[in-house]
Write a structure and sequence with these properties.
The chain has 113 residues and is mainly alpha-helical. Helices cover 81% and strands 0% of the residues. The chain is built from 6 helices and no strands. Helix 1 packs antiparallel against helix 2. The chain is elongated, with a radius of gyration of 19 Å. The relative contact order is 0.12. The mean pLDDT is 90.
Length: 113
């Protein structure tokens, strides 16, 4: 998985486990794609200060995922739903096919991140 997507998901699931400052820096770096220097200039601190804050935040996010596994589970469910959808598309009985596809769509909406 692309690193920024993974970090974005980790931040979404476990953002409340890190400080507001760490959340802000993560969002600027991951979601807004700002460099360490750009964040440092914007926040009036050193580039090293930004680096250290992001490093600690990422460590905490990855530790939370290692313990809870919510991102891994969500991605596994998505993959399963995609495979199910693909299998349903191979069915030739149209009314049942549409009902099953609707159920898959509803499940995907529930798991949408």
């Amino acid at each position: 998985m692309e690193k920024n997507i993974e970090l974005s998901l980790l931040l979404m699931y476990y953002g409340s486990f890190i400080t507001q400052r760490q959340q802000k820096f993560m969002k600027l770096n991951v979601d807004e794609d700002l460099s360490l220097s750009e964040i440092a200039q914007q926040e009036g601190i050193s580039r090293q200060g930004v680096h250290d804050t992001l490093k600690r935040a990422k460590l905490q996010l990855f530790e939370a995922e290692a313990k809870l596994g919510l991102v891994k589970r969500t991605l596994a469910v998505r993959e399963g739903l995609d495979a199910l959808e693909k299998g349903i598309m191979a069915v030739d009985i149209e009314p049942e096919k549409q009902k099953l596809l609707q159920l898959v769509k509803e499940l995907k909406e529930i798991w949408e991140v």
